Structures are given as C-alpha cells and as structure tokens.
Amino acid sequence: MSPGRVNLIGEHTDYNDGFVLPFALPNATAVSGTRLPEQRWEVTSEQTGETVRFDLAGGLSEKVEGWAAYVAAVVWVLREAGVDVPGARLTIASDVPFGAGLSSSAALECATMAVLVDLAGADLPLRDRPRLAQRAENEYVGAPTGIMDQAASTLCQEGHALFLDCRSLATEQVPFDLAAAGLKILVVDSKAPHAHVDGEYAARRRACEEAAGILGVTALRDIDVAGLPDALAKLDDETMRRRVRHVVTEDQRVLDTVAALRAGDLRAAGPLMTASHESMRDDYEITVPQVDTAVRVALEHGAHGARMTGGGFGGCVLALVDEEDCDAVEAAVREAFAVNGFTPPDTFVVTPGQGTSQISR
Questions:
Q1: Relative to the CA of 83, which of 41, 122, 144, 350 has its CA 20 to 30 Å away?
Q2: What does the alpha-carbon distance between residue 187 and residue 207 come to, in Å, rounded to a whole number?
Q3: Does 292 appear as a known binding residue?
Q4: Between 148 and 246, where is the model more confident?
Q5: Which of 287, 324, 317 minimizes the C-alpha distance to 302?
Q6: Which residues form the GHMP kinase C-terminal domain (predicted)?
Q7: Do 177-350 and 2-173 have the same topology in CATH?
Q8: What pLDDT was estimated at residue 143?
Q9: Partners of residue 164 on adjacent β-strands
Q10: How much is the average pLDDT of 311-329?
C-alpha cells in the first residue's frame, strides 16, 4: 500500500535537482496480487470495475494505455532492473483522488512495485524504488515528472514532512506535528482537471533545462538567490527569466520552511506558502482561477498561508489554518466557488501519513 502526497512547499524544483518538502496523505492505493504461471498480467480496478490484460512482448513499441499504463510501466522497469517479475493477477483499490494533484499515479506505481517485488521474492530496498518508479513514469508513460512524488509515496514517515534533496536523494524526516501547534492543513480540491502528460508541464521543464544550459550550470539548483540577478541578466527571453526566478526562489523557500519547522515555528511556514503560490501564479504561470480563488479566500478568512500543490493547471490548494478557523475557511471557500460558478470543491483535513508498506502474498 502506498499513499498519495501533498507538497507543503517546493513546486517544480524536483526536476531542477532542487529541494522539496512533501508529506504523505492518509489516503492510499492498495494493490494485492497472486502469481500466474505465465508471463502475463491481469489488472482490475475496484473503482471502475475495469480489467486490463497485457504482456510485454512488444516492449516499449506496444505500450498499454490509460490507467493500466502505470502498472505496465512498473512491470517493465522492474524487468529492466533485473527483477524476475512473475505474471500476476492484481487488484487495485484507492481512495487517493484522481487528477487532483495529489499524486495518485505515483501511489499506484509504488503500491504496484511493492506487491510485484513481494511476489518476486526480490530484495529491493525502499531507498532504491523512487528512481525506478520515476523512470517508469518518464520512459514508459511519457510524463516528464521529477522524483518527488515517488519518493514521498515511498519514504515519508507519519508525523513528518520529507525534506528531499532531489540531486543527492538525501532525506531528512522533519517533525510536522500540526495538532501540537493547534494547526490544521485544509485541502481544497478545486475540481479543475490536473494532468502531467501535456505540453504545458513539458514546456516548463524544457525552459528550465535550456536556461541551465545558457547559464552554464548542471541544473537551476546551482543558482542561489544571491546569484539570481546576475543569472537573469544573462537571459534574453522574459518568459525564461520568470521560470528561472520561480525555481531559484522556490528552492530558498523550501530551505526557509525547513528551518522554521526544525525550530518548531510551524506558523512561519504560512507566509512562505503564500509567496510560493504567488510565484507559481506570476512567474511559472501554472495556476487557474479556481485555485487562485481558494488561496485568496482562505487568506482573507484567517489562513496563515495557502498555496496550490502539485504540477499545476488545476488540482488542490493547501491552507495552513488554526484549528478554530478551519470550518470558517472551508465555508468561505465553498461560498466563493458557488458565487463564481465553479464546480463545488471537495475539502478535507490531512495529517502527515506513512509511506509504502509491504503487502503480503
């Protein structure tokens, strides 16, 4: 079983070798399985009732499509890594909202990997799995994601946020005890569709890689805030300058948030979250009216900070609120969505959960 995740701060920094600070959701995807005698796979989704059957005889030239592609991708990448993956009949159950920017795809990948490794009787340490799951999504599914989602789904610990250096993969479990601080994280699912396999996400990643090449660095992580003005002066394209400014300042906001959590000052994360959202809105240009409305209204009704979480163009908003203000913020956001004619949002409170757990045969 593997959870979805929310990213407290650090958006679009992962594929720039930067820093992120996600935590696992209580919501998770469970995959159970039994071995089959031949090299084929049969996958059933309890949510849709659909069953997909496939083999990998055609390799990458004959890809499985749709939601089952994430399962086939994991079979493929494990075999590429030398794991003797047996044929299997798999059943998927999940309460991670799909298309909400809460990493339902990574939850499915990591849960599938857990059960297939278990069925194979292989020794594949948890720390080695995020890179494989990322490769599965990048090369098989075709989504140019960074490693944050798979790392969060696999490695997070209950009651902590995961401070991840996406270059070295060094991690730190940072205590994030919301209840002790009298705080809650309210999630607003905007119901604006969210997808990674599209041109907008890829275009932003491409702009960052091109900028790094122009600036002579391996990745934008190698530019710090002090060096940002000089870096921007070397770029002729205004859109590229905005993309670089977001990534560099977002990395610093992650570091500042980690420092605040280490010091036990959870409320100090709020203004950093809000600044992150403003940067995503103005410099990275990945927000939509629904999420901008949710952030604005949450702040107007007492949230310490609020930001979109996930790849953008829809998805969810996180609001850091005092326990006593949570209901009022939720009600105000719902009212604002109704006034604006938006689809009613889903809202729920989350606490940091546990990463991947093995499923017995």
A1: 144
A2: 30
A3: no
A4: 246
A5: 324
A6: 258-338
A7: no
A8: 87
A9: 20, 171
A10: 95
CA dihedral 103, 69, 42, 46 (to 10 degrees): 40
Which token pair is 61?
A: 């030239």
pLDDT above 90 covers a percentage of the chain that reads 85
The better pLDDT of the pair 103, 138 is held by 138
CB 13 within 8 A of CB 163: no
Spatial distance between the Cα atoms of 289 and 9, rounded to a whole number of angstroms: 20
**Whole-structure pTM value:** 0.90
Q: Which residue has the tokens 């278990």?
A: 118
Half-sphere exposure of 134 (CA within 13 A, CB side): 20
CA distance 252 to 270: 15
The CATH topology of domain 2-173 is Ribosomal Protein S5; domain 2 (3.30.230)
Q: Does 111 score more than 70 pLDDT?
A: yes
CA distances from 84 to 41, 55, 165 (A): 14, 14, 31
Class of domain 177-350: alpha beta
User: Quick check: is 327 catalytic?
Assistant: no
Pairwise CA distance, residues 361 & 89, whole Å: 12
* Token pair recorded at residue 86: 């047996």
Question: Is residue 103 a known part of a binding site?
Answer: yes
- 108 touches 356 (CB < 8 A): no
Computed on alpha carbons and rounded to an integer, the radius of gyration of the chain in Å comes to 20
Give the pairing of strands 2-9 and 19-35.
Answer: antiparallel
- The answer to whether 13 is a known ligand-binding residue is yes
Is residue 101 a known part of a binding site? Answer: yes
Q: What does 215-270 look like in DSSP terms, one character per residue?
A: HT-SSGGG--GGGHHHHHHT---HHHHHHHHHHHHHHHHHHHHHHHHHTT-GGGHH
Which of these is catalytic: 149, 251, 283, 325?
Answer: 149
